[in-house]
Amino acid sequence: MKQNTAMLIFFSIVLIVTIGVNYYLYRHTDSIFKTSGIYQTAFRVLFWVIALSYPLGRFLERAIPSGASELVTKIGSFWLAAMLYLTLMFLLFDLFKLMHSWTGFPSFLSAKDSITFLRKISVGIYATTAVIILAGHLNAIYPKVNRVSINTDKSLEGNTMLRIAAASDIHLGTIISNGRLERFVRMMNKQKPDIILLAGDIFDEDLGPVIQKNMGDQLKQLSAPLGVYAITGNHEYIGGAEAAIKYLENHGITVIRDSVLTPQGKLNVVGRDDRQAKMMGGNMRKPIEQLVENIDKNLFTIMLDHQPYNLNEAVENGIDLQISGHTHHGQMFPLNLITKSIFEVSRGYKQIENTHIYVSTGFGTWGPPVRVGNRPEIVVIEVSSGRQDGMNH
User: Fold this and answer.
1) What confidence tens digit (pLDDT) does each residue in 249-264 have?
2) Which of 37, 141, 160, 293 is the most exposed, having the fewest neighbouring CB atoms within 10 Å of its CB?
3) % of the chain beyond a pLDDT of 70
4) Residue range 236-260: average pLDDT?
5) Range of lowest pLDDT (224-233, 279-288, 310-319)
6) SS3 of residue 307 by DSSP
7) Residue 242 pLDDT > 50
8) Lowest mean pLDDT among 138-152, 222-236, 280-294, 352-366
9) Residue 368: pLDDT band by 50, 70, 90 thresholds?
């Protein structure tokens, strides 16, 4: 019941924001529509069909999943990116108009009331937006491998090096589907990791497309000697955490929920439930100090926590490495300015005292399959131990 209410609230907010922003864009685009007869009406109808295609597509893929609902969702997802850049550029144009009304500068805006002039501005803004989205889409579908090397004086129980392949925010569903998943699995296995760690938001809001397209068969191909482990992210809770966890467990991925595992006795892996657990599922997650109370503190300890808030808590509780995601580093510039203001680490690596932090930009995308200003990634973290308790790895 709580999950259904949360989904209703989520989609209501999306719908209200979508209509409001698109009305602003519609008013600024109206000069393009000013033609004659049926064409003017057709253009206006087409605008609103596209403008509302994302919430419509997400509703249809739940109510009547089909190729048509998938197409509508994909069109709408690109329009979400268009909304951002169209809004920013039209706002800039409005700012210039306001400045011109006060100062007469810039002078070219003297023709601002001409329909022909406004049409040229609108077409130019749309063309620029299309170029940005195309470039951002190409950027989003070609992930990179980031590599980080860290040292520890903790024991790795017989090994002097541990290779971790980690990823977050894959967002499997309608937009990120089998082709991208196949690339992901191939990239992860190619690193020959000792352990694979997935830091939440493996699925998008709806598990339906994942099941329909049998993506679990690809997930089962992930392979590492110490195992494949995951935690929940906020999107698992938005879509229904229990079903998502069961699906992962049925396809070879161990989900760590507010507990600690010690794969083959070589390291501690702390898995935190997502911060959304209480809001979406009614469960209060355990504090870190309770999770690590009885662990072997001589072993290297990794903590997976989807949202990188309160990094000081990892430091205070002796966590050696925290891996997080969630931020997407804003996904599309200039939204990274917001994530940088919210999170101490919006992306990449930082060491705080004896704790190493890595926040991934994520492998997939939410909403628009577009990234501007950052790349999707997997990360390979090589941990070298100063202690030589046995043979080399």
Assistant:
1) 999 999 999 999 999 9
2) 37
3) 92
4) 93
5) 279-288
6) coil
7) yes
8) 280-294
9) very high
Helix axis angle, 53-63 to 37-51, nearest 10°: 60
What does the alpha-carbon distance between residue 162 and residue 225 come to, in Å, rounded to a whole number? 11
Pairing outcome for strands 259-261 and 268-271: antiparallel
> How far is it, in rounded angstroms, from Cα 233 to Cα 323?
13
Q: Are 325 and 362 a contacting pair, CB within 8 Å?
A: yes
End-to-end CA distance of the chain: 49
How long is the chain?
Answer: 393
Residue type, 110: S
- Nearest one of 378, 234, 254, 257 to 308, comparing CA atoms: 234
- Supply the CATH classification number for the domain 144-385: 3.60.21.10
CB atoms within 10 A of CB 98: 11
Distance CA 248, CA 231 (A): 10
Cβ atoms within 10 Å of 138's Cβ, excluding its own: 11
In this structure, the strands spanning 144-152 and 161-167 are unpaired
pLDDT given for residue 3 in this prediction: 54
> What are the residues whose beta carbons fall under 8 Å from the beta carbon of 193, sequence distance 6 or more?
163, 164, 165, 224, 380
Q: Is 169 exposed, middle or buried (0-12, 13-18, 19+ CB in 10 A)?
A: buried
C-beta separation of 34 from 26 below 8 A? no
Copy the structure tokens of residue 275. 């911060």
Helix (H, G, I), strand (E, B) or coil at 145: strand
Look up residue 368 and give its DSSP letter: S
Evaluated on CA atoms 7, 9, 15, 17, the torsion sign reads negative
Domain boundaries, the chain: 2-139, 144-385
Owner of token pair 């090397």: 149
